[in-house]
Amino acid sequence: xKLYVGTSGWSYSGWRGLFYPENLEPxxxxxxxxxxxxxxxxxxxFYRFPRPExxxxxxxxxxxxxxxxxxxxxxxxxxxxxxxxxxDLRYMYILAQSLGRKLGCLLFQLPPSLRLDLPLLEDFLGQxxxxxxxxxEFRHPSWYTEPVYELLRQKKVIFCIVSSRQVPSExxxxxxxxYVRFHGLTAGYRYFYPDTELEVWASNLCQLRVNECFIxxxxxxxxxxxxxxxxxxxxxxxxxxxxxxxxxxxLKKTE
Length: 255
Hints:
This protein is α/β, with parallel strands linked by helices. It has helices at 29-33, 44-47, 52-61, 74-79, 86-96, 118-125, 146-155, 195-205, 224-246; strands spanning 2-8, 39-42, 67-71, 103-109, 133-137, 158-163, 177-182, 212-217. It has an eight-stranded parallel β-barrel.
């Protein structure tokens, strides 16, 4: 399993002095971030469509192997609520390609007010371009049902595993790629995940039968996301290494 672990965004003034050096200019935050993480989730695309040149510049500022996952614009998920969005999807995909080989996943986060509607979901999934890593995050518990999971598997769309107060933390796999978001529990974005909880997550995630796993922490308060992301990555790497050591080794040829 290849790991991509990072945070939901990097441009937080509150991280100055906690993660970023006090005297570091905001224009240098992304290159600094890349020294510690191999991926980042972009939330600004949810609120507005940035210029393609902006994404191209971000790609140029980051090293080879770094990836950006983009959150789909709210016009698709919250305003139109998945209906009549073909043109919006087309533009979102065109914009995402500005990142080139550094594009990770495209996340479609549904609003909490949108309840289970299988025909609507099937119609929407049918409009997604399968050459992209499409992820869907459900914010209402009514979506957490096997018919939904099976539909995602058929359409090769990634189910977003979440740690949140709103929905169950079910480690469902619907594609060869896993996508996990940590939103915080009792205190929301101010929640700090203790090591004991991260150890449980590491144990569960290591058991997923996927080729790649994208993980993002959204608890940005006091740079908690940075600390939790680095800790979980360390736990995962340690566990995956032990699993690899236990795997049967190929027999050596005898002369």
